[in-house]
Write a structure and sequence with these properties.
Elements lengths: L2 H6 L8 H28 L3 H4 L3 H30 L6 H16 L10 H17 L13 H9 L12 H22 L2 H17 L2
Helix pairs in contact: 2-4, 2-5, 2-8, 4-5, 4-6, 4-8, 5-6, 7-8
């Protein structure tokens, strides 16, 4: 790829359920991992390279990123559902289809080595509950979506709490800003009416299959 290709390159449009699932997966991982890595490096300062070479810290980092992934799916899921909602003839039914799509993204991954199977299954059940609860209220402003998750996410940081005790507002702001940026990318790439219709058709065809 030459410089002209790079200059005019655009990420592919989100035009079907598979592309939407991939977007949710990628952005959920990006959201939680970027915050964990950047915060850990910022807190370690000039000792970051030393910290990131310690086996014990790397184990804690692995636990943190996997434990935070379902939170990422919940937050990104709510961002996407908010974009699809205006195009739903029946929001409750569309949310049912959409929740199944997000859970299929979770199911791409077996229980990670750092998290036991029972805990991973409980995380799936909690994600399903969170997705269903989206329908209990009108779509939120994107910047408000992290509020129920920010403290849990912050508690998963692989840094001792006494060291990071004053940094929660920074972490919450990171989630707000990053989600707003992800939402803008979603709006730029997704044809929401088409995807909403295809999501319904895809789920209906699955239900009709023998």
């Amino acid at each position: 790829m030459n410089w002209r290709d790079l200059l005019f390159w655009r990420r592919p449009p989100i035009a079907d359920a598979q592309a939407l699932a991939d977007f949710i997966d990628e952005q959920s991982a990006f959201l939680v991992q970027k915050g964990i890595y950047e915060y850990s490096r910022a807190l370690a300062g000039p000792y970051a390279n030393v910290l990131f070479s310690e086996p014990e810290f790397l184990e804690a980092l692995e636990r943190s990123r996997w434990a935070a992934y379902p939170l990422g799916l919940a937050m990104i899921g709510e961002v996407v559902e908010g974009a699809l909602c205006p195009h739903a003839a029946d929001r409750a039914r569309q949310l049912e289809f959409f929740s199944a799509l997000v859970l299929s993204v979770f199911d791409r991954y077996p229980s990670p080595a750092s998290i036991d199977r029972q805990t991973w299954n409980e995380e799936r059940a909690e994600l399903a509950r969170r997705l269903q609860s989206i329908g209990l209220h009108p779509p939120k402003r994107v910047m408000d979506i992290p509020e129920p998750y920010a403290r849990t996410y912050w508690d998963l940081m692989p840094i001792a709490k006494e060291i990071r005790s004053a940094d929660f507002p920074t972490t919450r702001s990171y989630l707000q800003v990053t989600l707003c940026n992800i939402h803008q990318e979603l709006i730029d790439r997704m044809d929401a009416p088409v995807v909403a219709g295809l999501l319904h058709e895809d789920r209906a065809s699955q239900a009709a299959a023998p």
